[in-house]
Please model this.
Amino acid sequence: MDIEKVKSDILKWIVEFVEQPNRDLAGWPPCPYARKARIDGTVDIRVGRIDPLVDLANAVMDNYEVIAYAYDPKEFTANDFDLLVQRLNRNFLSIRGLFALADHPESVETVNGVTMNQGTYAVVFLQDLSKLNHFARLLARQGYYNGWPEEYLTELFAGREDPRL
Model:
């Protein structure tokens, strides 16, 4: 995969979708913290190797809030990709205080009619677990998750703190 095209595609999705307020999400953007992280230069987009385990095992967050590893979605079924990321979280990343969220084009995630997926690549979003939990608690207190489907939230918070509790 062409690293510059991948970065451009994901950055375009972040700016044009992830950062934008959405009326179907009660006026919230899909990620209220994305714009600041992008502007502050704390988002890093990388093309992953064939094995996400190698990438995530060697990942160092440094001063990044999010590291996105993009993969060719043809290399993984959606189910295999999700299971791989779940296993990495449970058996490896949580020990390091990190958490990864999987996004595969064939595993469509919808909230109130809004498709949340990037759509082109299989992407792992790696973040600091304590920061992720902290900011999710802040959003929960502000009502961000109100009206989101329970099934989606249960899956979203699997393996980490549920901020609504």
